[in-house]
Write a structure and sequence with these properties.
Elements: H1 21-35, H2 49-75, H3 79-92, H4 97-110, H5 113-126, H6 131-143, H7 147-160, H8 166-177, H9 181-195, H10 199-211, H11 215-228, H12 233-245, H13 249-262, H14 267-279, H15 283-295, H16 301-312, H17 315-319, H18 323-332, H19 337-349, H20 355-365, H21 370-382, H22 386-399, H23 404-416, H24 420-433, H25 439-455, H26 459-472, H27 477-489, H28 494-507, H29 512-524, H30 528-540, H31 547-559, H32 563-576, H33 585-593
Length: 599
């Protein structure tokens, strides 16, 4: 879509016409229509008032026709045709703010924000009292990150429309963005003068005063809330939370205890004090307070859920509680899937497989809760249960056919299950389903597709997949390493392999697999000294437990005339090989004879 035409107005001297040939012809005709009557000697013609009224009426009729046609074309998505009709309106009435406003809207929809901003500025100049045009201009300034201009227009809006509550927040946010906390506070003060104290404003002012390093005034804002709502203990507890944010544990504890002195059963303050104790290392005291909140039937479910989530995610705390706490919550809220999921997380963290049954129970209650499926899939993945993982993802996509994560996991499981066709289908589906292109995920998937093709001896298909992966993410070091290694195995394009492998090593210089690849490429190029330097680094960084590294080390040692050590490396590699891999007769022959054998 080409840029919508920019008019040359009385206040704008730059010409930004970007017209199609047809639009240029129409504009030329309109210009001639306007200009030609002024040329040549013409006898003045007296025009009666009645004729002038008729001419004005005819122009208004044309204007209305073109304007309505512009709106109709805009509704149909024909931006060029809409712009053409708005141009006709402009030549009839060049001071019409609505024309400029509509041209701005067309440019917004086409993504031409700077041009849209110019049009909207002109619309506001022509109709400075129009709230909607000013509101649109503020949004355009915000999109362009022109915060000062956005603040100026917002100030103008509030002068004329002080009832527009949202603009006090917008103004405060803009001044905060511009590092002017005092002006931001003034905007919120103005809001409070008209609307009174509320939690959101008090918290925003608290943050602004903290950024201005004025703790006293910051806490005055919270005290105002407490005074305005003396029976709502959440504000008193909030004050303690804010002290905690500022690492003032002493004042936080003092505040929580003050709440509990007046309201001994207040669950939120009890919970916060319990969390503070745990933070201070008083685990038993903290857990006792949290347990009392969990056992209180009057406690809100959301609070109980957050406590259990907190405990289940901390392996030390999880061992300090027993199943009864979780089971009581399930008993109290048997229709809440999260009750079962939290208990499942606790059980699985204790390596108790009955946790799976509680995930399944959560899915019975609500099969449309994605986190339940993710938890199930992740469990099977952690257990290396590829069959369970594959079945779980197949179930998950029945409920969430548009979720790329489940297809990605399905492809991974299918590859491990030796079902290459299913893996390729699932991975391609995952790439296609990404609503906003995630290049990192697409690159990872294409890399796995390349690995799968290599497993099936389809080299050209594999290399095409690797190239595609690197288009998505040129720094995918796993793909860089694998691609380089497979090129070296076939003695193909070793200079390209060296560049890719070097990039992987530079990104992760202690990875034994990457160092081994780099060493092997130098070996293939006949540079045995560099090969030995990198294979020794691979060996020192954990490669001594990898039979492939040991075999390569032996090959390189042999070429550097260290044949006795080479044989020892080959023998160690042979011993380390799994029984299923011991059909490698070349390695066996090298280990037995001490002589290098070309692959």
């Amino acid at each position: 879509m080409q840029a919508i035409v920019m008019l040359n107005t009385k206040t704008q001297q730059d010409k930004n016409f970007a017209l199609s040939p047809l639009r240029a012809f129409v504009l030329l005709a309109l210009c001639l229509f306007v200009i030609l009557p002024s040329f040549g000697k013409q006898k003045p013609v007296a025009v009666s008032q009645k004729q002038e009224t008729a001419i004005r009426a005819e122009e208004k009729r044309k204007f209305d026709y073109y304007f309505l046609e512009a709106l109709r074309q805009k509704m149909r998505g024909n931006r060029d045709a809409a712009a053409d009709n708005l141009l006709r309106c402009y030549y009839i009435d060049p001071e019409n703010a609505t024309v400029f406003s509509e041209l701005a809207n067309l440019n917004i929809s086409a993504g031409h924000i700077p041009l849209a901003k110019k049009y909207m500025i002109e619309a506001v100049r022509l109709e400075p009292e129009n709230f909607w045009m000013k509101q649109a201009l503020v949004q355009l300034y915000l999109q362009n990150k022109e915060y000062r201009q956005a603040a100026e227009v917002s100030e103008e809006i509030l002068k004329k429309h002080p009832e527009k509550k949202e603009y006090y927040y917008i103004l405060a946010s803009l001044y905060a963005q511009m590092q002017q906390p005092q002006k931001a506070i003034q905007a919120l003060d103005s809001f409070e003068e008209r609307n009174g104290t509320n939690e959101q404003v008090a918290l925003e002012k608290f943050k602004l005063y903290i950024s201005a390093k004025n703790q006293k005034k910051a806490f005055n804002e919270i005290d105002k809330l407490i005074k305005a709502f003396p029976k709502q203990t959440k504000y008193q507890t909030l004050k303690g939370d804010l002290y905690l944010v500022l690492d003032n544990e002493m004042e936080a504890e003092k505040t929580y205890r003050s709440v509990l002195a007046n309201y001994p059963d207040e669950p939120l303050a009890t919970n916060q004090l319990g969390l503070l104790y745990i933070r201070q290392g008083k685990t038993a005291e903290g857990l006792a307070l949290l347990s009392s909140v969990l056992q209180d039937k009057a406690t809100d479910y959301e609070l109980k859920k957050s406590i259990l989530s907190f405990i289940s995610q901390d392996s030390i705390l999880a061992t300090a509680v027993n199943d009864t706490i979780y089971l009581n919550v399930i008993k109290s809220y048997p229709e809440e899937e999260l009750s079962y999921l939290i208990y499942a997380a606790y059980l699985l963290d204790q390596n108790k497989e009955e946790g799976i049954g509680y995930i399944r129970k959560a899915l019975e209650i609500n099969p449309k809760y994605e986190d339940s499926w993710l938890m199930l899939v992740n469990y099977y993945s952690m257990k290396n249960d590829t069959a369970g993982m594959l079945n779980a993802t197949r179930e998950a996509v029945e409920h969430f056919p548009e979720n790329p994560e489940f297809y990605y996991a399905m492809g991974t499981a299918a590859r491990l299950k030796k079902e290459p066709e299913t893996a390729l289908w699932a991975w391609r589906k995952a790439i296609a389903l990404q609503k906003e292109r995630n290049n990192l995920l697409s690159s990872a998937i294409q890399g796995q597709i390349g690995d799968l093709y290599m497993e099936n001896h389809q080299r050209q298909e594999a290399f095409l997949a690797y190239d595609t992966a690197l288009v998505y993410n040129e720094n995918n070091i796993l793909v860089l390493n694998n691609y380089a290694y497979f090129l070296s195995l076939g003695d193909e394009n070793l200079s390209k392999a060296e560049r890719m492998s070097g990039k992987a090593v530079a990104a992760d210089p202690k990875n034994p697999a990457y160092l081994d690849t780099y060493a092997w490429i130098y070996f293939k190029q006949g540079d045995y000294l560099l090969a030995q330097m990198y294979i020794e680094q691979a060996f020192a960084n954990g490669g001594n437990n990898d039979p492939d590294v040991l075999e390569h080390y032996g090959d390189i040692l042999y070429k550097t005339e260290n044949r006795e050590k080479a044989r020892k490396m080959w023998q160690a590699a042979w011993e380390m090989k799994k029984e299923s891999e011991k059909e490698n007769s070349i390695l066996k022959k090298k280990a037995e004879t001490g002589e290098y054998v070309e692959k």
